[in-house]
Amino acid sequence: MPERKGNYTISFTNKPQVVGYAAAVGKKESEGPLGSFFDKAFTDELCGEKSFEKAETHLQKTAITTALKKAKITKNDIQCAFAGDLLNQCIGSSFGMRDLKFPFSGLYGACSTMALSLVLSGVFVDSGAAQNTVAAASSHFCSAERQYRYPLEYGGQRPQSAQWTVTGAGCVVLSNQPKHTSRTVIDRAIIGSVRDLNVTDPNNMGAAMAPAAAQTIAQFLTDTDTKPEDYDLILTGDLGSTGSRLLIELLKDENNIDISGVHNDCGVMIFEPETQDVHSGGSGCGCSAAVLCSYILDNMAAGRLKKVFFVGTGALLSPTSTLQKESIPGIAHGVLLINQ
Amino acid sequence: MPERKGNYTISFTNKPQVVGYAAAVGKKESEGPLGSFFDKAFTDELCGEKSFEKAETHLQKTAITTALKKAKITKNDIQCAFAGDLLNQCIGSSFGMRDLKFPFSGLYGACSTMALSLVLSGVFVDSGAAQNTVAAASSHFCSAERQYRYPLEYGGQRPQSAQWTVTGAGCVVLSNQPKHTSRTVIDRAIIGSVRDLNVTDPNNMGAAMAPAAAQTIAQFLTDTDTKPEDYDLILTGDLGSTGSRLLIELLKDENNIDISGVHNDCGVMIFEPETQDVHSGGSGCGCSAAVLCSYILDNMAAGRLKKVFFVGTGALLSPTSTLQKESIPGIAHGVLLINQ
Questions:
Q1: Whose CA, among A86, A209, B169, B259, lies 20 to 30 Å from A113?
Q2: pLDDT tens, position by position, B96-128
Q3: Do residue A123 and residue B124 have CB atoms under 8 angstroms apart?
Q4: pTM of the prediction?
Q5: How many angstroms separate the CA of residue A25 from the nearest CA in chain B?
């Protein structure tokens, strides 16, 4: 049963188990430093579908069905799926759920969606509202680029602070069923609140999201009375290199907390900065979803990482809000994954 | 602590209390049959803001702050807010949450959002993951019309099956704190799965959503071993008159269930069909939110309604999916509200 720990943190007493996980990505991601860890890589950016939006649905469905297979859980055993994406009206997720037929709670947390879906899954599984859940998120470079920025054919230049939307999806299957004997469980979770320090540049999402990440990390450490050194890894996703630098500075300046020794960022990890021309790194719901559901959970399963605080970060803007000269609200949700 | 009841239904043992609720609407809604029940009606469609999108945020914030005041709960006591809307990237909700500063879980369920936010709120409050939550949803005729259909100035004709997007918002505050003595509680909840019977006409959302509503209602009645006559009201939102007719037919044909004696629909209730020129009725996240958080919960508080199964219905399409010739997936989530 979930309990409150401090003002914002939820502590899980039944420790929902990570019984399966998988990541599916595109070609560019498969050529990056984590390429060998992904379950499935598509060389065709349409993934055999007729549009980039349908390709994104295909990616998310691939991650989900692969995770279920690895978990040895059938579709009928899933009592709720929490999923979201960046597309208008979240069609990347909802059209996949039409085929999968799970009870489905649609989420919108921008690039924080993987973390949000894990928090809600955790509460459902820990409390008994569901026995087995799916948490998933996806993004696709081509569907996002043409929706948020320019037609793909335009080929506009991007500033160095811009990030590259990841073509990818990730899925975690959680369970409270005693037959499973997974090493990795969700121990705690925190739902973040919106923070907006008046960043207005939609080509610098890292700067817009870093303040929210700092707030959530500081709140969690206070609530749980822990220090950065208590964790093997504090993993943000996806601040990129610009936002990561700002996060570390903000936490030092505002909270006197130094996470530099244990911090990494999914947007920094997924691409090779020198050769892959992604500027500040990867972004999109699929970035942190794919990194978490491959390299990170693999390392936890192998015991090389034992305590990972995963903090998904999202920029809650829209092209309309930008045209209306609004600043960019950021949000960050966190889950603490531990090995039992 | 939530328990599973049947295959899909969640049963709440601690009975989260409805400790506050409020609805804020626009001028047309205030002139309809339920006009006198809304907490706040704006005569200016911009609600004093500079754009229709900001006006929608204003509506949602008004519903939330009014509900908190009626609940005698301060902003700091809210441990999670669940909210969503129809705008791209859900900016109607996220920009309001920037000011309210609640821990915030963004949802996308199209017009089913009010029901989905109540289901998730119920699980959080029942399980102890939160003591007090906010569940909210909103829509605005002008922001929706120009995003989904045509520029407002165009004045295109609409077929009789089309619905009119409600300018409105609703909010429910739930609590597990024993100091409250509310009559009305959430007893059960069900998260629906996507159903798509290949309806492709975006001017007939009622037909697209009715199959999902039928599925959720039939599942709930099976899980709980109850009959339509066991309820004072089975309230869908927002099928409109076309969708309501189809729902009643579908349940008779497919499940041999007759809900005609206890059914009503928020989209049918909110406007006067003869004089308000809304064709099939109201729609939009704000429709069921505003009707539930005024007339319905008022009648429950007064004891005139004691057992209401509220089923929010959503059409999970986007303008892009329609252009790509996709059919329209529907979803429906339900909560059972009872008087103790």
A1: B169
A2: 999 999 999 999 999 999 999 999 999 999 999
A3: yes
A4: 0.98
A5: 22
